Each structure stands twice: as structure tokens, then as C-alpha cells.
């Protein structure tokens, strides 16, 4: 196990370096300069802008800038934001917790809805449950997240006035758990809806494959209750494709929840990424990229390790 984890970590190093190099190259070759906002300010002279560009090393060649950034990164310094003049590390830490909370909540919402529908769809193949689950899965997959968000806002915030429009806490009031949960419900449901349809289909197709195995028929012939057969023998042995999907989807949600966080004013990494791209704040863009890349690599490793828990025949040697 230790050798396997070490091998995966060693393989992840060049992958991580490749990701950082690619994103840095895209930022370097992007049109426009991060100092254009300063040039539009009449109170800032061109000489001051040139001095700041020299201080930030923007006149250096690409490889010099990248090596300088990598050197600072290895020492734990991700630089300073062009937009806020704050350390990038502090901004990432502040935005990471809301994104992790939103991601985990959306996964919980998706699993609560998808697992019962997927299980019932597999148990009653081509029946009413299967048809209803397929229709729901199609609607969930084909509905854009921004449209779903607007529908939720219109129903629960504008007309019914049950939930707040946006933010993470009530403005001007104590930051309580109740306030957090009220603000979390809608963005978590919207973000979770993007994966419900695919999750239902993964569960259904995987369970249908397992239901035809000999050990499932043997379990039924022994007189075991149907619930025990479905949960212990069928569902558990069909979870590997589902875990694979979740392992790939969770880090993507962390880095790709831009639209949801923007609509609901959720102060996470997606919202921070969009503001940084708009203001050409490349140090923050690189920082968010690093967090997303690390999340992808870590969840891929955890997914592989979890295979051994689900299937004892799998050994990581």
C-alpha cells in the first residue's frame, strides 16, 4: 500500500508541473496586461505603472517569470494579488472553506436523490419507476445550471420568500448555523442537480450488471430478504463505477462552480476565479488552478484506494 501511494505521488508530480506550466503559459500569452486597470486611472502616472511592472517582473521572458513563480511556490509564497494587494494564499484559504462546504452539500443532495431513484430503477427495469427515473435523469442532465438557479430564486426567494437570495450569511446579523444552512440550500440543490442525472444512470446500469451474477441468485435462494440482497450483495458490488464517477466529479465541482457561486453571490473559489480573470489577476488565477489540480490528483488517489474497501479482491501492490 505504501509503495503504491508513493508511486502515485511520484507520478502526480510531473502532472502537476505540466498543469501549472500550461496555465502559466495561457496567462502569459493572454491579451491585455494586468496593469491596464491602473492605466485607466487618471491618478496613476505611466511612470508609476512602469515601476510596478518592473517590480512585478512583467518585462521578464516567459521562462524567467515561470521559474521565479515556481521558486516562490516551493517556499509557500503564491504572490500578491494585483487587484486587492493581499497575499494570494490568504485569499485562497478564505475562499476554500465556502467552496468545500458547497461541494460536499451538493454531493449529499445528489446522493440522497440519485441513490433511491437509481436503485428502484434497476429493481423495476422497464417499469414505472424506471421510466420516471429516466425522465427525471434526462431533465436533470439537460437543464442548464443557470436556468435552474433562476427558477429556484424565482420560486423560493421572490414569490414564497422562504430563502435568502444570495450570500453566505444574513447581512448585519450574527453568523449562525441556521443562517448558513438557509443560504446553502439553494446553491447546493442547483449544483447537485448537475450530477443527479448521470449518477442515476451509473447506479442503474451498474446494478443491472450485478443482478445477473450467480451469487445474487444464491443469496435469494437462501431466503434472504430482498432489502438485504439489494443493499449488501447488489449495491455494494456495483459501487465501483459510481465511486469512480464521484471521484472525478467532486474536484470538478470545486473548480467549476463558477456560475452557481456567481448567481448566489457565494464567496468561493469559483467566484474568486471569475473576478480574478476579469481583472487579469494572474497570481490568483494560478492559485485557484493549484487548488483545483491538487484536488483532482488527491481525489483520484483516494478513489483508487477506496476500490480496495469495496472489493477485497483488489490489492494495491
Structural commentary:
By secondary structure, the chain is mainly α. The chain contains 14 helices and no strands. The N and C termini lie close together (6 Å). The model has no long low-confidence stretch (mean pLDDT 83).
Features:
317 residues; mainly alpha; single chain; globular
How are the SSEs placed, and which strands pair?
Layout: H1 2-29, H2 36-39, H3 46-56, H4 62-74, H5 88-123, H6 128-142, H7 145-159, H8 177-211, H9 214-221, H10 226-237, H11 239-256, H12 258-263, H13 269-278, H14 282-310
Give the structure's gist in a few sentences:
The chain is 76% helix and 0% strand. The protein is an all-alpha fold. The protein starts with a helix and ends in a 7-residue tail after the last helix.
Total E-strand runs: 0
Mean pLDDT: 83
**What is the string of SSEs from the N terminus onward?**
HHHHHHHHHHHHHH
Helix content estimate: over 70%
What form results from the Cα inertia axes? globular
Overall radius of gyration: 24 Å
What ranges have pLDDT less than 50 throughout 5 or more consecutive residues? none
Measured between the Cα atoms of the first and last residue, the distance is 6 Å
The profile of the biggest β sheet is: none
Q: Report the sheet-strand fraction.
A: under 5%
Secondary structure tally, helices: 14
Q: What's the oligomerization state?
A: single chain
Coarse structural class: mainly alpha
Amino acid at each position: 500500500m505504501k509503495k503504491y501511494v508513493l508511486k502515485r505521488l511520484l507520478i502526480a508530480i510531473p502532472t502537476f508541473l505540466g498543469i501549472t506550466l500550461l496555465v502559466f503559459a495561457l496567462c502569459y500569452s493572454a491579451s491585455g496586461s494586468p496593469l491596464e486597470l491602473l492605466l485607466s486611472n487618471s491618478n496613476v502616472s505611466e511612470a508609476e505603472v512602469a515601476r510596478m511592472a518592473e517590480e512585478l517582473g512583467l518585462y521578464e521572458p516567459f521562462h524567467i517569470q515561470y521559474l521565479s513563480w515556481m521558486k516562490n511556490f516551493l517556499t509557500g509564497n503564491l504572490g500578491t494579488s494585483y487587484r486587492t494587494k493581499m497575499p494570494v494564499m490568504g485569499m485562497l484559504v478564505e475562499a476554500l472553506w465556502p467552496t468545500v462546504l458547497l461541494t460536499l452539500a451538493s454531493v449529499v443532495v445528489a446522493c440522497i436523490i440519485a441513490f433511491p431513484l437509481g436503485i428502484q430503477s434497476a429493481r423495476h427495469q422497464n417499469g414505472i419507476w424506471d421510466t420516471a427515473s429516466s425522465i427525471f435523469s434526462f431533465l436533470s442532465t439537460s437543464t442548464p445550471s443557470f436556468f435552474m438557479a433562476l427558477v429556484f430564486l424565482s420560486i423560493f426567494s421572490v414569490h414564497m420568500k422562504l430563502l435568502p437570495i444570495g450570500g453566505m450569511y444574513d447581512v448585519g446579523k450574527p453568523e449562525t448555523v441556521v443562517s448558513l444552512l438557509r443560504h446553502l440550500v439553494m446553491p447546493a440543490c442547483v449544483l447537485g442537480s448537475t450530477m443527479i442525472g448521470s449518477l442515476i444512470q451509473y447506479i442503474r446500469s451498474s446494478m443491472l450488471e450485478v443482478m445477473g451474477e450467480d451469487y445474487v441468485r444464491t443469496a435469494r435462494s437462501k431466503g434472504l430478504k430482498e432489502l438485504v440482497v439489494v443493499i449488501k450483495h447488489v449495491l455494494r458490488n456495483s459501487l465501483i463505477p459510481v465511486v469512480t464517477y464521484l471521484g472525478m466529479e467532486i474536484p470538478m465541482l470545486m473548480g467549476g462552480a463558477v456560475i452557481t457561486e456567481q448567481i448566489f453571490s457565494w464567496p468561493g473559489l469559483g467566484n474568486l476565479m471569475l473576478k480574478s480573470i476579469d481583472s487579469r489577476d494572474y497570481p490568483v488565477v494560478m492559485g485557484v488552478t493549484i487548488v483545483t489540480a491538487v484536488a483532482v490528483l488527491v481525489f483520484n488517489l483516494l478513489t483508487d484506494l477506496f476500490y480496495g474497501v469495496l472489493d477485497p479482491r483488489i490489492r494495491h501492490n
